[in-house]
Amino acid sequence: MSHAIDTNSLALFYRDVRKVDALSREQETRLARRWHEQDDRDAAKELVVANLPGVAAIAREYRHFGLQEMDLIQEGTMGLMHAVKRFDPNRGFRLMTYASWWIRASIHDFILHSWSIVKLGTNKLQRRIFAGLQKARNSIAAMDGTKVDEVAAEYGIDGNAYQEVASAFLQRDLSLDVERDGENITSTLPSATASPEEQVSASNWRDFQEKQLHTALQMLGERDRYIIVQRHLSDPVATLKDLAKDLGISIERVRQLEKRAMTKIKDNFTSQT
Fold first, then answer.
1. pLDDT tens digits along 180-205
2. What is the C-alpha separation between 68 and 59, in angstroms, rounded?
3. In a shared domain, residues 263 and 179
4. Residue 11 in domain
5. In this structure, are 173 and 249 located in the same domain?
6. DSSP per-residue letters across 101-138
7. Structural domain boundaries, residue 241
8. pTM value > 0.70
9. Distance CA 149, CA 6 (A)
10. How far apart are CA 238 and CA 230, in angstroms?
11. How far apart (Å, rounded) are the C-alpha atoms in residues 127 and 131?
12. What is the largest CA-CA distance in the chain?
């Protein structure tokens, strides 16, 4: 995989997103009505593009999970698109305020379904708590303590322990209206360049993942290992069709072997926690 390519893509994205013009409440309402009443896809596209800075701001909160930031942004954008479809401007709040839940839910799902999810926590309890944070009730309990003892009891721990674990995964929402304190949200986005501390943390995480992955790969047969390397660790990534041709088997068989190999890798990681 080429980290440089991803970094360049991220830098280009932030360069472009800083050029996005913020929408006033009136402009946003007008576009939303054009989309819902006239099925104007250009209006929907404008709503999505104008709110990409908010997606980026949310995605950056999840970088410590060890996933590529551009992947998080892309998943968050899918959540934003779902929110645009359902947004009702007549309810009085801004699109980004409404969309933040959809964006987080989409990113959350991506993390949960990522094959590296098994190392998010140091034990199974932490992973269960992380998975449960997708429920609004659990998130609220983690943030402000509402019914925290009741939620914590589901995990066999007390409220303080639950909040301590959950706080490592969950950050308080900021208002994501396009204007915040008179300042456009694009100007409050942090630099796409990681700080020295973030670089060290990311490097340590990558080193750890590489060691764990190397160990897991050795457990696979030669063919399964080849499929995983070509599908997940190469640049460009091989398609199922490419591998089917290389190995002389059907595309569906390649898909089955890939799924089986990924399950073995996940099980290997899980057994070590």
1. 434 444 444 544 444 444 444 444 44
2. 10
3. no
4. yes
5. no
6. HHHHHHHHHHHHHSTTGGGSSSSHHHHHHHHHTTSHHH
7. 199-271
8. no
9. 42
10. 5
11. 6
12. 61
